Amino acid sequence: MGNSGSAVKVCTDHQGGINWLSLSPDGQRLLTGSEDGTARLWSTADSQCHGHFQGHESYITFCHLENEAAFTCSADHTIRKWDVVTGQCLAIYRGHTSIVNRILVAKDYLFSGSYDRTARCWSVDKEKQIQEFRGHRNCVLTLAHYSSRDVLEEEEEEEEEEEKVSRDLLVTGSTDCTVKVWWVSSGRCYQTLLGHTGAVLCLILDAPNRELFSGSTDYTIRTWNIVTGEQLKVFKEHQGSVICLELVNRHLYSGSADRTVKCWFVDTGERIQTYKAHKHSVSTLKYHAGILFTGSGDACARAFNSRSGVLQKIFRGHKFIINCIQIHNELLYTASHDGTLRIWDIRGICKRNKRLSRLFNNKVGCMPSVAVQGVLQ
């Protein structure tokens, strides 16, 4: 059944639910965005709040943290950039006409997706809109970015003379059941990926392998060739909406409203593990050191051995859905709609899992396959 854990620290500064949690690339800070219309900056060294970003006129839907700047988007139709040292608002990006629900920072670009049916590209430094991507028939929910240099051969790039100025592409998923790929420089739609029969909730990009994975309310995950637009595989075993995805070493983890996570081997499409025990939808997941961590609508986080599927620990304490999790220095951070950020020590479970992995690697070569599951349990 797994051992229950208690938080080493509970941060209660927010006055509303936390919708997102972002970790800086250097691992020194965390950013939370809340229903109270503010964002807060936390140090991973002392778990203290070191910044309070105020200015949005409605709730914050999503946030993103770089080492020197923080970005937030809001139901007030704007995106803001903040100085992580002074807390000063450095820029306000205006142009969307409805809720901005997702942002993505890549290179010098800031991308945003909105309920106004558009995605937009902004210059991070100049506070200026560079491009608008118009063509979806409903809300833009999720974003991904890549460069054609990552996926196209030289001769294929020569065919795209029109886009020579910039080889950046934006991928958008929408409630109109489609995924679209756009040239950033022109705003032209390069591909429309058709096949889903429900809203596209999540995207994962594997540019080196030219693959895109999309999860949907139609209960499926689909794999696409991002150069040709061809649909490669359909993963159909979930019995509810696919809410979140994570790709690790050609293994795809999918969290669903059916209360399970499934692991798929991407190369064959085979479902190789199902992680159960959740009492509500799986809202977020994160793979770390052979452990699959999940957050759920049942207000609990859980840790599973990723190979065996065995539940190793339950983290109890939140009152409402866990919207996001992050992991740094063997600490698990969980952000919930109850307004709290909770911090959990996972050193013990990580050590235990390393021992199990060593045991597995030593035993698996000399054991019949039917016995492998028993080794890990």
UniProtKB/TrEMBL annotation:
<keyword id="KW-0677">Repeat</keyword>
<feature type="repeat" description="WD">
    <location>
        <begin position="93"/>
        <end position="132"/>
    </location>
</feature>
<keyword id="KW-0853">WD repeat</keyword>
<dbReference type="InterPro" id="IPR036322">
    <property type="entry name" value="WD40_repeat_dom_sf"/>
</dbReference>
<feature type="repeat" description="WD">
    <location>
        <begin position="315"/>
        <end position="347"/>
    </location>
</feature>
<dbReference type="InterPro" id="IPR019775">
    <property type="entry name" value="WD40_repeat_CS"/>
</dbReference>
<dbReference type="InterPro" id="IPR044715">
    <property type="entry name" value="WDR86-like"/>
</dbReference>
<dbReference type="InterPro" id="IPR011044">
    <property type="entry name" value="Quino_amine_DH_bsu"/>
</dbReference>
<dbReference type="InterPro" id="IPR015943">
    <property type="entry name" value="WD40/YVTN_repeat-like_dom_sf"/>
</dbReference>
<dbReference type="InterPro" id="IPR020472">
    <property type="entry name" value="WD40_PAC1"/>
</dbReference>
<dbReference type="InterPro" id="IPR001680">
    <property type="entry name" value="WD40_rpt"/>
</dbReference>
<feature type="repeat" description="WD">
    <location>
        <begin position="193"/>
        <end position="234"/>
    </location>
</feature>
<feature type="repeat" description="WD">
    <location>
        <begin position="11"/>
        <end position="43"/>
    </location>
</feature>
<protein>
    <submittedName>
        <fullName>WD repeat domain 86</fullName>
    </submittedName>
</protein>
<feature type="repeat" description="WD">
    <location>
        <begin position="169"/>
        <end position="192"/>
    </location>
</feature>
<dbReference type="Pfam" id="PF00400">
    <property type="entry name" value="WD40"/>
</dbReference>
<feature type="repeat" description="WD">
    <location>
        <begin position="235"/>
        <end position="274"/>
    </location>
</feature>
